[in-house]
Amino acid sequence: MNQLNVVAVDELDLSVAPFTWSFAAARRAEIDAHFEARRRQTPELWNGRVLLMSECALRERTLRGTFFETDFASFLAWRDWGGPDQTITNCFAMGALRTTDGAFLVGVMGKHTANAGCIYFPAGTPEPADIVGTKVDLESNVMREVTEETGLTAADLVRRPGWRAVVDGARIALFKVLEADVVADDLRARILGHLAQETQPEFSDIRIVRGRGDLDPNMPGFVAAFLRQSLD
Asked: For residue 176, what pLDDT is reported?
């Protein structure tokens, strides 16, 4: 597994602007065919609207970037094909749930999702609902995803200042540490109770990470990098 660097970020300056993505236009037929093939495997996939970055810079603990809107099918093809347009970045936020006993909680993605079996913190690709004026609000994005995927709300969690970023090729994962005032076993039980009430929950299970021995090969490199640093 690649050793990725974790960088402290104090400020996000993220805007949105119109952008014509030549990859999506030039390979439309291939993209549509790829999405239909993926839907035959996972019928629950939905071709909604998402936000990707056309430009970005991470300097002096500030991430600046410009997002544009595209369809999920184009994003999925670009991701599945290894990011053939290297000018584009997938920047997203993850809610790093931490408990009073120092553990982190992560979820196993359900079979009906595009990332089935992967082990993540709550997260989601930014979407138009995250646009406020001309800016993209990833703090609201991550809290929405945490609530949708775990049932936890802002009242249950303390948001730590700043972010930690992991740059992994064409991905920038931004981790927001969210602290719960309970121990890991109790928080896991609460989230599992929420999942049991959902018709089709995003997570099929919740794992507790107390140390490096709890890292799993199904964790993406950027998740493992964040956990390794945080657990040192």
From this structure: 98
